[in-house]
Amino acid sequence: MPAPTSPPAWSDALSDWYGRTARDLPWRRADFSEQYGAWGTLVSEFMLQQTPVARVIPHLEAWLERWPTPAAMATATPAQVVHQWANLGYPRRALWLHRAAVQVVEHHDGVVPREVSKLLELSGIGDYTARAVAVFHYGDRHPVVDTNTRRVIARLVEGLSAPEPPSARDLTRMSTLLPEARAASSVFNAAMMELGAVVCTARSPKCEVCPLASDCAWLKAGQPQTGDRRRRQARYEGSDRQARGALLRMLREAPEHRVPAGVAAEHWPDGGQRDRAIDSLVADGLIEASDGELRLPA
Fold it and tell me: Is CB count within 10 Å lower at the N or C end of the chain?
């Protein structure tokens, strides 16, 4: 990681804008941090991966009411966490979060660690989540880069309509933009993400209200379409992902979270796709199949 450099001239304007306009989200409130500590931040970041904020909020509140600490969640069964995850999507995250809670209890006395290196050792945690916990709860100085941040950097600094595919360069680039003070760098990280989420959006950027419009390289260049080389996600409708979701929903809603294997045909008629979905769910540890029965994991 390069040594800190002077922050860009527009960093103060961005942070000021964030202070005036930031959305009132549960994980940004002081009482949230006081009540749930770093565990609350960790749970929210797990849920926010590839899931819209509006869908996350009610699930987050229910989750933390049921399991307000890693120790509380460590006593849950895999079936309970998969059921509680409901329709948030990418349900392997629920199992990873459960394993991370167990690891926090067993190796960190029930306290989510502060160091990025130790956070990265927990199940399901990558560069983004580890740094998000260290920055947004503990207030340390690290670059935090999500999809929104990458898009803002691409347009504002590099004059591109869309970011390049993710790479280690993302953290390096963000690191050179961070203010040196820890508190200021934490706000800056959050402000870059917020700008990308509500103003510098992928399809319909609101350049007319952007606080950094006068500094934007892409806007100055006339908003050229420079292409997008990122891998596109496959269509959801009719996909194996949709089949997996239908089968998991069936089990979450079934009495005792188990059904005869033949009942699955009623929930996904394409036999080949249904079998692939069942096999992949079993491989991921999200369901169990034995004795002619499907069930959530014990």
Answer: C
Q: How far apart are CA 258 and CA 140, in angstroms?
A: 45
pLDDT single digits (tens) 259-271: 888 887 777 778 8
Q: Do residues 32 and 40 touch, judged by C-beta distance below 8 A?
A: yes
- For the segment 149-171, what is each residue's pLDDT rounded down to a tens digit? 999 999 999 999 999 988 889 99
Residues 104, 70 contacting (CB under 8 angstroms): yes
Minimal CA–CA distance to 248: which of 27, 75, 97, 78? 78
Q: Which residues pair with 293 in a beta bridge?
A: 260, 290
Q: Pick the more confident residue, 242 or 219.
A: 219
Distance CA 77, CA 187 (A): 37
| 34 annotated active-site | no
Model confidence band, residue 275 (pLDDT cutoffs 50, 70, 90): confident
Q: What is the rounded distance in angstroms from the CA atom of residue 183 to the CA atom of residue 192?
A: 15
Query: Which is the catalytic residue, given 34, 45, 61, 293?
Result: 45
Per-residue pLDDT reduced to its tens digit, 232-243: 666 778 888 888
CATH for 240-295, among 2.40.30, 1.10.260, 3.30.70, 1.10.10? 1.10.10
Instruction: Determine the Cα–Cα distance for residues 225 and 160; give it in Å rounded to an integer.
Output: 7
1-232: what CATH class?
mainly alpha
Q: Spell out the domain ranges in the chain.
A: 1-232, 240-295
